[in-house]
Amino acid sequence: MENQNPNAAPPAAPQPPFLSPPPPQSYYFYNRRWTKQHDHFFIQELYYEALKGQRQFSRTPNMHSLNYGRRLVNAVFNFNFKYIVFKCRLDRLRLGYMTFRTMLDTPGVVWNRQANIVVVEDNLWNNLVMNNEFVNAYRYRGKSMWKELRAIFSAGDEDEGPQGVVDISSDDGGSEAENVIEIEGDEGSDRSNVSD
């Protein structure tokens, strides 16, 4: 039996995974062969297809549009990726879109589009992560190319946008901090509150 010091502090309990700092956003979306640059090009091509009315990505991929995007990405970046790679990329983009959309619809979650950051209290953040670990992809940064992803995946929900969005504008020359419009998550209240 080991000699234990009765005055020694007990060993620290390991932290649950949601309390430790999450990895960077790139961990969830990219790898050595597929980078942010590739993703942006692919999203842009799917967006153009969606604008042309080839918008069937909400539940199942439109094979014509996906193959078109595959051929372009392969040609521009000198790849030889198969259809399944692009189908998996589309599934990952859809997961990111749905996760971020759900986050923004959660009362207490606020996204500043200009700074591309998500602001949320730690307790709420921990609850979100417990329900969906993929939420960690947005701990440090919001979702880039949101307009394009909405056109690709929204399937007709072209409303005002998610509730937790903060638009910052400065039309009167005042500071941005004076002109923050916060859209609250409570459906029953007046959702536009201009802070002074």
From TrEMBL:
Residues 169-187 have a biased composition (Acidic residues). Residues 1-20, 157-196 are annotated as: Disordered. It holds the Pfam family Myb_DNA-bind_3. It comes from the Eukaryota. Residues 33-127 form the Myb/SANT-like domain. InterPro entries: LIMYB, Myb/SANT-like_dom. Residues 8-20 have a biased composition (Pro residues). PANTHER family: L10-INTERACTING MYB DOMAIN-CONTAINING PROTEIN-LIKE, PTHR47584. This is Myb/SANT-like domain-containing protein. It comes from Sesamum alatum.
